[in-house]
Structures are given as structure tokens and as C-alpha cells.
Target: Kynureninase
Amino acid sequence: MDRSDVVAELEKLARDRDSRDELAELRNRFTIPDGVSYLDGNSLGPPCRTTSAALTELVDRQWAPALIEAWERHDWWSAPRRVGDRIGRVLGAAEGQVVVGESTSVQIFNALTTGCRLAAGREVVLVDADHFPTDLYLSRSVTRLLGLRPLRVPMGDAVGALDEHGDEVAVVFCSAVDFRTGELADIPGVTEAAHRRGALVLWDLSHAAGLVPLELDTWQVDLAVGCTYKFLNGGPGAPAFLYVSHRHQDSADPVLTGWHGHRAPFGMDPEYQPAEGIDRFRIGTPQVLSMLALEHALAVFDEVTTVRLWEKCGELADFFRHCFAQLCGDLDLTIVTPADPARRGGHITVHAPEAARRWKALAERGVLGDLRNPDMLRFGLSPLVVRFSDVVRAVTELADISRTGAHLDDRFGGSGLMG
Amino acid sequence: MDRSDVVAELEKLARDRDSRDELAELRNRFTIPDGVSYLDGNSLGPPCRTTSAALTELVDRQWAPALIEAWERHDWWSAPRRVGDRIGRVLGAAEGQVVVGESTSVQIFNALTTGCRLAAGREVVLVDADHFPTDLYLSRSVTRLLGLRPLRVPMGDAVGALDEHGDEVAVVFCSAVDFRTGELADIPGVTEAAHRRGALVLWDLSHAAGLVPLELDTWQVDLAVGCTYKFLNGGPGAPAFLYVSHRHQDSADPVLTGWHGHRAPFGMDPEYQPAEGIDRFRIGTPQVLSMLALEHALAVFDEVTTVRLWEKCGELADFFRHCFAQLCGDLDLTIVTPADPARRGGHITVHAPEAARRWKALAERGVLGDLRNPDMLRFGLSPLVVRFSDVVRAVTELADISRTGAHLDDRFGGSGLMG
Model:
């Protein structure tokens, strides 16, 4: 078969899979521009069709008529906890353990300082060497601030490092999914290994929440954080979540003692008295517009389980690999994401020289992927918005660009925010 | 004259003042429900009439079509700095010194830790004893974390305390306007006294920004923070601002080293390299919906100076006192806010036993004021939204309720978020 026949066959296969996909209906909840294959829902999920109407309702029917009274009348006050409980359901967390607000970076600081204080007397923070940069920067800052020692190890060596340094380790801080390679960590295994040595775990779930079936309570995870603008589709910079297990809440001693975490916030007590439960981890006034847009986006998770989303994500990944093997085998491209479904997350990363140029050339052809300079292309497989036909299109265009050298054209050489 | 004649005369005076008020036209930019006198813009400003349309534009014409590319195409990336510069103009700050994002509580932590590190070797943080609670809680937390000593003194004693302890003081941390009494601090005087002793100043401008004519650069203020949902009308929980003087930016060593503050955020460097300038003080991904609603609300400040806003605010305050003297002189009510225009901020506080009941009774009559338990009513005089007729109405209703004991009715006895 020549290449066009191969492509035609893959496209037929994709159409067939799409037509049988019972999640396809949910895709209509979101707006994706016609002609765009969106494989970057792992960076920023798309809006719901109804998001702008929900914001209009919030501004014109809550804020405008009720003004200050809206905090109580429309229960904005409880939003960090209420939205937290909703996210808790996709994390495998019983109520009262998740709170939402601030940026992921701030919640990392909040969680890590809290964890280190809970494990006072231990001097090492074991940090995933391949963590997203903000996690690395903040773990460096926190250890310096508290007089502790950071120890960076590749995620795969975490259990071995615990065997060696376990008694000194306060907190093990890892990413559930490697932002570069898409590799999925062994969350229950690392958690159990940490607990065996008396350490706590803090998981960054940014690339897992809303996709990977998580069981934080069952796995006895101590602390977790994550962003909500990727697979949870909460909107640009949507507020982050923090999970603190019931086991630790009432002995925790947070550093970020904002007034929303006070036992009686409107008592205007000059001394801080921490609230009971997860409210202790509230900080300042939540950004209500962003918070309630997130709440609106979470409604879709009442209609589908992460088990089903994860299953489709795996099928998309297998199909990506199948297309890639057929179309890219002879090109200067390599998939770096593990093939084993148990070891991969929600995106497939392709090693490609001059990745920025290929990423721009793909975008010009309507395939929005993601770039990690200098040589990685990421293709996010958010199962709510990606179709099998998007996958075959992405791989076909990537192969064509790479084969023809289309990306070497001058117009793909400029620099921008990312590349 | 009997009381109804007095009221009629005050109402006539108010109508006359309102009809000659050239800021009245700007009030139409905002939505205030018919029949409501809103004297709580010092807690939460009202939305602009066009805010919901601006959000629809953002969601449907930026996020939906551009998806991830919107960060660059619509310059969301620069928003924290761009919106910061816009706020800088009402603070008397030249460009490149203000950044917006996170909650006020987080920015207090950010600013105070930064200030203490800039003043390393000094052991005392002089803290306004009458600060808003979150300022008190976070100054306690920061001093504990850094091994420093907090010294709480009433704002009026700050200069005296500097004379006594000046050489030990790292940072003087005060509120520009006392949230309870509405008293305005001597910002240039305290700043100068601090500098004379080698200390830095950090001002919380939450109750001043967008109202009091500020000259942070001229006064050589070092650091400042503030919320944007009061006189700046940014929306519920709108992101806070941080001002860091040019003088300190490049020697600052922030604790909250999020990836947005990195010199090359998309380089994905495993080591933190701080950005030059105000970008160093960015933390995590900003909540774009809330951030751009704030930006939209700031447009009104292109059309009016804080000098003019402050002038009208003073006229409203004088008129409040005049009405109060006429109608409340024989009642169990006392104004605690200074009469001197140079010593008061944007709200007038009335001492009133069982304040919560009176506050609820006022709200039932369409006068939305504010409550600070157990015995303070606050009446915010946001000059963009408050009319002279609102002032006379508020005082008339307060007098009537207090005189008749209407607030003693059972229906005002329930408890809610605040009272």
C-alpha cells in the first residue's frame, strides 16, 4: 500500500471508532473551533458552550443585584469547599478534604510547608527530579526556608531512595504524570514505600486530575495539589486544589494563615485560631469569577467516571501509537512515552529535532499540540474533546511536515512566548 | 422644625448636590439595583454594566477560538504586569513596579517575606496593632517562620516606636486606612520615619487604592499590597496587587518562587533564575477570568483622577456628618471616624450597640452598609457609586430604626455569615 492508502484506511478506522464512541456526545458540551484538532487539552481545556452564559448569570443575576450580600445569598463563601468536594469525587476523596483557590504554585508552597511541619524532626524532602519547574523551584525555596535538605531523584528511583534515606525523609514530593514524557507514577506504590519509612507524600496531580482514576483515600495519600485548567477544563489559570487527608487536618500548622482559614473569619479576632477541618487550609478571598467558571465546568464529571475517561484515553493512545508506527517509522521522530498503559498518563510525547518549527507548522494546519523546548512535542489526549479522527490527522500532518521538511520554511522560525 | 422637615431639607440639599455632581455620569457605568443605596463599595464594588459582555467576549472570542494560543494571541501572559501598570497609575507608581495576581493574603505573605529578607540582620517587624486580621495573622506567621519578632503598636504610635526600636526594625507594616475606624494613616510621615531609622515600609492599601490620592514613588514607599475588589470594583475576590519599588526589585529574594517569576518561564530550567524587574514577583498562573474582569473595571480610572474622587468622598463624608448631627444627636450612636478630612479614609464608622440588628434592618430598607461585630456599622462612601441622596437616606433610616427600636424585631436576630 502506498501512504495515501494507509492514511485512508486509518481515517476509516478512526471514523468507525468515533461513531461508536459513547463519549462523543459529551464533546458537544465544549466549543472547539471547526477545523481544529485540539491536542492540547492537557495544557488548557476548552470552554463549555455554556460557560459565558454562566458567567453572565453570575455577574448580572448574583453580583449586580445582591452586591455584597451575594457572598451569603449565593453562597460564594462556601465555594472553595463546595468546589473542592466536587473535585474530591474525581480524586477518590471523601468530602471535607479538598479546598480550591489560589494558583497551583501557591498551593504547592502551602502543601509542602504543611507537610514538612507535620513531619518535624526529619530533614530531607525527596523531590521528583523530573518535576515541573515550579515544583522544583518551590521545593528549593521551602527547604531553604525551613532549614531542610532537598534530595532530587528520578521518580523511578523514589522507592530505592526511600530505602536508603527513609528515616530522614519528611515528605516525598512527586508528580503523578511526568510533564515531559507523560510517564505515570506508581502512586500507591510510592505512597506505601514512603509510609513504611514514616515519611509523608505530596502528589502534584496537575496532569492526572479529571483523567486518571485516582483513589487518594484508599491509597492513604497525605497531601496533594493540582491545577484545574487542564483535564478539568476550568478555564485559563483556574484556581488550584489542595487535598489534605482527614488524618492530618487538625494537627496541621499552615504557614499561609489567611483570614479565610480562621475558625471565625468574621469575628475579626486579632489572633489566629485555625478552623477545624479542611477550612484551615483556606487562605484569602477566592477569585469568584474564575472559581464559579470552574464549578460550571465540573458538571460534566457527574455524567462520566474517570474509569471510562481513562479507558478512552488509553484507546486514543494505542491508536496514536498504531498511526505513528504506520506513518512515522522511517522519520526522525520517536515516541518517548511508555507503551505500557499502566505507565503512561494523558499525553504522548514525541521527540523531534526543531520541535518548535514542527509545532508551528502543525498549528498552521489546524493541529494544536504542545511544545516543550527544545525537542519535544506533546499530544494531549483529553478524552472529552479528542476524537480518533483528531489523532490520525495529527500523526498524518506530523509525518507529512517531517517528510517534506515543511517546517523548515522561514515563517516557522520566529520566536514567541514558547518557541 | 420637626424631624420630617429636617429630613425634607436634607433631601433637597442632597438632590441639589447630586444634580451638580459631574461624577454622576460615571455612576451609570455601574449596575446598582433600583431602590438600593449602596454604602458598601468599600467591601465589594458593583459590576460595570459591561462586565458580563466583556467576559462573554473573553470566553467566546478569545478562549474558545484561540484555546491555548490565546495566552500569546490575546496577551493573557502579560496581564499581571499590564493590569499592574494600570493600577500603578492610581497609586502614583511609574510603570514596571506593580504586578497583579493571587489573593491579598498571599501578596501580604509575599511582600512581607521579601521585605524582611531585604532588611536581613534586623529582627523586628513593626505591625499596626489595628491591622485587618489577615495582616496580623500573616505577620505573626512570617516572623515566626523567619525567626523575627513582631511588635504590634497602634498606627498613631508608629513614629514613636521607631524612635525607640528603630535600629532593630526590618519592616514597618501598616494599613493606609484602618478597616474599623476609617482613620487614614500618615503614609509619607511614617515612611520617612522608617527610612530615617533604616527600616523598610510595607503598606496595605486595600482601603485606599482607587480612592486616596497616593504618590508611592514620590513618598519612596518600599512595598505595598492591596485588594482590587473595593474601590477599584474588580469583582468578588478580584486578584490583589503588589508594588515593589524599582529600588528593591533586583536585590529582592522572593520566597514564592513560582515559575511565572522565572527569567525564562518556558525554558523549563530545573533551577530558579529570577526574572529582572517586577516580573520576579509573579508567582503562578493568573486566574484570567477574574484578572480581565478587573482590567475591564479599571477603564473608568482613565476618565477621573483620584484627586477628584477623593474630593467628592470628602464632601460625602462632611454631608454624612452634617446629616448625622441633625438626625442622630440624641441617639445611642457615635461616629468614631475622625472629622478631620486629612485623617479619614473612605468610610464612616458609627458605633452602635447591637450593630448586627441595625445592619439587617437597614438592608431590609434598601440601605446596604457594612458590619463589624459587635458594635460597628461602616458606611462606605465610594465616590463613583454613592450619591448625596444615598447618604441622607442612610442616616435617616439609621436614625428611624434606632429611634423606633425597629431593629429589635425578632426577624433581625438570626445569625448568618457576619451577624
